[in-house]
Amino acid sequence: MLVKLPPARPADDFVAPKDLSDTSRTDVRYTRSYLLIRIVVGLLGLALPIFFIIGEASIARSVHFRGSISAYYHSPMRDIFVGGLCVIGFLLIMYLAGQGRDSRSDRRLSTWAGIALLAVVFFPTTRPGVPDGAPMCGDTPDPLPGCSTLQHQLGETPVAFVHYTAASLFVVFLACICFYWARRDVHERMEAAKARGETVSRSALWRTGRARVHAICGSLIVLGLVWVALRIDIWELTPLYVGELIAVWSFGIAWLFSAGALLKQWRELLPIASPPKPAEAAEAAA
Fold first, then answer.
1. What backbone phi and psi angles, to 5 degrees, belong to 85?
2. Closest Cα partner for 42 from 188, 217, 222, 208?
3. Distances (CA, A) of 74 to 134, 157, 280
4. What DSSP line would sit under 20-50, residue for residue?
5. What angle do CA 88, 42, 22 make, to 5 degrees?
6. Distance (Å, whole) CA 110 – CA 94
7. Segment 94-135, tens digit of pLDDT
8. Three-class DSSP category at 237
């Protein structure tokens, strides 16, 4: 079975500290590093679509929405597109990488999502605005503007097929991760309630806490796929762009929410700590 729940925690298992402000402790430092990866992944997922628009507008002096987020590969934002998605892809692959063979299902799902995202980057979509009958990448020995090396070697259409397949798998894996997190949260809270001798409703747990947020994010990612299939336009935005935007932003929110313990103490992330207040300094000296 691809998605399975984690076993009950052994008595000597590592438990993440709730207070992450004391960086002199090893467990706090490792937990903060782990959660920071989630924060970076979530922030990049939220920020990149906006940054693509703002960056291209600052260069072209006009706001232009492309047919899809992937189409920014063929834009002045190509370097940002490739760099940003590569960072997310490698972070997804390295997420929980130290767990080895006995890793949880979200580790495997995250690894495959990262591999799929890297395939999206290195196998770009077709060039936008190419008229019918125009030469395609790979059809001529002379390099065409905007074509990547793989498109020249393998052909524009085969590379685009790999791109769309990888993009679809990437979105599906993201939805599976969100639903796995939601189910795991319900499972762990049920086990904790049983240990305390309490009786709780599983349906009530699905409607509260992290399970609710992750389930909503997973459902929104599925909605993004349905949106593309239904071909619903909004203003100048194509169905593909809207569907990708829904999926990417839901993915970003899910990863940020999963690092909520660290976000609540966001001031501790500043490279330079704020100076203590006079009253606090006097108490410390005493």
1. -70, -30
2. 217
3. 17, 15, 55
4. ---TTSHHHHHHHHHHHHHHHHHHHHHHHHH
5. 110
6. 8
7. 876 666 555 567 788 889 999 999 999 999 998 887 777 788
8. strand
Q: What are phi and psi of 253, to 5 degrees?
A: -65, -40
φ, ψ for residue 188, nearest 5 deg: -65, -40
Question: Cα separation of 213 and 167, whole Å?
Answer: 24
Tell me the per-residue pLDDT of 206-263, one tens digit each, with 9 for 90 and over.
Answer: 887 788 889 999 999 999 999 888 887 787 788 898 999 999 999 889 888 877 655 5
CB 140 within 8 A of CB 193: no
Neighbouring C-beta atoms of residue 80, cutoff 10 Å: 16
Q: Give a three-class secondary structure readout of 91-130.
A: HHHHCCHHHHHHCCHHHHHHHHHHHHHHHHHHCCCCCCCC
In the chain, count H helices and then E strands: 10, 0
CA 249, chain centre distance (Å):
8
The distance from CA 186 to its chain's CA centroid, rounded to whole angstroms, is 22
Q: Which two tokens stand for residue 217?
A: 């994010």
Cα angle 8, 217, 57; round to 5: 140
Tell me 133's DSSP state.
Answer: T
* Tokens linked to 253: 């929110």
Type of residue numbered 207: R
Q: Which two tokens stand for residue 162?
A: 């790999």
Angle at 163 between CA 162 and CA 167, to 5 degrees: 115
Q: Which amino acid is at 118?
A: L
Q: Are the beta carbons of 167 and 116 closer than 8 angstroms?
A: yes
Tokens representing residue 207 in the block:
């409607």
In contact, 43 and 252? CB cutoff 8 Å: yes
256, 30 contact by CB (below 8 A):
no
